[in-house]
Amino acid sequence: MTTLRDEPFEVDVTRSEVVYNGYVWDVREDTFRYGKTSLVRHYLDHSGAVAVVAIDDEDRVLLIQQYRHPIRSRDWEIPAGLLDVAGEDPRDAAARELAEEADLEADRWEDLGNFAVSPGGSEEFVRIFLASGV
Fold it and tell me: Can you tell me the distance from the alpha carbon of 44 to that of 109, in angstroms, rounded to the nearest whole number?
């Protein structure tokens, strides 16, 4: 049985520059060779983030309501936040976000892995943690 997984792939980046400096994120423009073709791509230059699936002793998952301007909505989501503190361990960042957003702590933590949020337009990866004993 073949294992299905993402596969890192290196290309020859001939130029890379920040074309827009934003308050939270920047926009980067890369020119690179893919096979015999030269391509240009713009994407969100992102610090990364963490998110927490917090489960209490009754197997309830914590959701918080946040205003998200791009979608003009107060949506329900699991606690999450940026990896914007230099050198901060992602697990520590997840615990910080759970404390800041919900005033909660967890007894047990499990790293569930990373996922690319929008790989066609952002380099953002979110590391998801399972927090139990909340």
Answer: 30
How far is residue 50's CA from residue 127's CA, in Å, rounded to a whole number?
Answer: 5
Count Cβ atoms below 10 Å from residue 94 Cβ, excluding itself: 28
Do residues 123 and 114 lie in contact, with contact meaning Cβ atoms separated by under 8 Å? no
**Six-digit token pair at 12?**
């020859």
Q: Which residues contact 87 (CB under 8 A, 6 or more apart)?
A: none
What span, in angstroms and rounded, lies between the C-alpha atoms of 97 and 78? 10
What are 104-126's pLDDT values in tens digits? 999 999 999 999 999 999 999 99
Bridge-partner residues for 15, per DSSP? 31
Q: End-to-end distance of the chain based on CA atoms, in angstroms?
A: 38
Using a cut of 0.85, tell me whether the model's pTM lies above it. yes
